[in-house]
Amino acid sequence: MMEERSLRITGTNQRFFNKLTDTLTKILIPTKIGINGMLISIKRNNLLKAFENYKDENSNYDKEDLEKKYHSTYELYLESLDKYVMDSIYKKVRNNTASDFEKNALSKYYEVTSLKENEFIEYKYRKQKYLLELDYEGIKVNGKEKLVEKYTKFYISKMDSLYKSILKNYSIKVADNINTYDSAKEWIYTKIFYTLEDYIQNILSIKMESGYEGNYKDIIDEYEKYESYTVGKLDTRDNIEKNMILLGISRKLFTHSLPLIVAEQCYEKLLKDARGLVQDTKMAAKRERAYSMLITLIEDYNAKLLSTKVYWDSPQKRDEYKKFWNKYKEISKLKETDFIEYVKQKEILFIKNDLKNLHKTKTDYTKLLKYYKRKLVDYGAMRELKNEFKSEGNFQGKIKREVLSNV
Q: Model's pTM, two decimal places?
């Protein structure tokens, strides 16, 4: 009887102490956040000072020493941010006192750390990117104007470096068997487009808003085009067009971290998607829009990438492309005098050139080939000849034989 009573008392006390512990934890969490916040603030200020000294071209201090100081303060700053996530946000989520922002922040943290085992290089850069984004969001909301201004300069500089490193890592992965489009790398291409869009939304936009030094005149038109794809729900055609714009911008912003040979494979991936869309779309109006997008993509691919290509797999390929490019430049002269004829001749040139490319692929493009040939017939660049023929089963009929003319 005494034993039972003892057990009941122990159980009651245990429940009491559990409640007390939960209450104390909830009380102490804000204090913990306050302590972490103070440490972050101190280390952030040390970092910003070291960054300004490192970037000061007129400094009398040794450049190498300033760089070491900057990197060491940066590491300490990141450690304090990491500690904040684990000591404060994690505990708030566990105790069900976290805001939606904090819950989302922890979810993203685990998403990044999940890369550590199999993709360590990507994990290393993405974790830094995540921690900087987390602090930047807080500074924008709670920081004083002077702090926001100072931090933004550091933030842009460091984020530029991180995005370039992430893209360079993807480029190395894509570079295996570089001469062919490899469908097994589909996920890497998706990551490249996602990273480019993320940069344009979150870093380039800050640069343009804050008047950051840099010449963006060459990409302003493409940037405005991209902005039109940030509103509303996008279909497959819209996404291909958006990625085409992202690639065009990347040729100006990430020339070294996303080299031409890798960008070429990205264009090949988009061309494959666009051809498939034209071939598989059944509604005539939608197919025409998809076809128009494919023609634009072919022009983009040739004008923004292949025309700048220096090294070719063979002299024969280089010479073939030179003939194509000279013909394109000749047709472009019509743009000012006869725009309709210019559009027609340009399409004919692109279709004929793509027909050659389609015959070299293993993908079945039967429907697209017919669609292309019908376009050429409509433009008067291909003739239809009707011939009689006999089959082995004494069946007589007629077939259409389409022949490329000299037009």
A: 0.81
